Sequence to fold (128 residues):
Amino acid sequence: MQSNDTAAIINTLATATPMNVIGGMVSLTKVMTILAIGAGIAALILAIMRRMSAGQRSSLLNALGWVGLGAGIAGAAYSALNTYIAANAMHEYRFVILLPSVIEAAYALIIGVIACGIATWGNAGARR
Fold:
């Protein structure tokens, strides 16, 4: 790996803030990521309410977790597909070129997993 590639990788990772990453996403990936964020926020609110009341399992909370996870997976898959198509079209396979798209896919997937984790935590220990 060349030193200018290393500097470019370091610069890309240093500027990979959530707003920069989400702002640079393709429209469909951005919509899926925002949907996963919304599901995560709603799941957090419902999880806190359910945990405070110590009630039964919440089907809505469970559904929000699955919606968040599904949106995250769909956003990551779409971003990865776009990266694959673009890399094949340009015949450019260097990691430094593909890194921003890999970060976008990782963000979408991680946000979906967090939303699902919040929903699972919210229903943990509840009676059926």
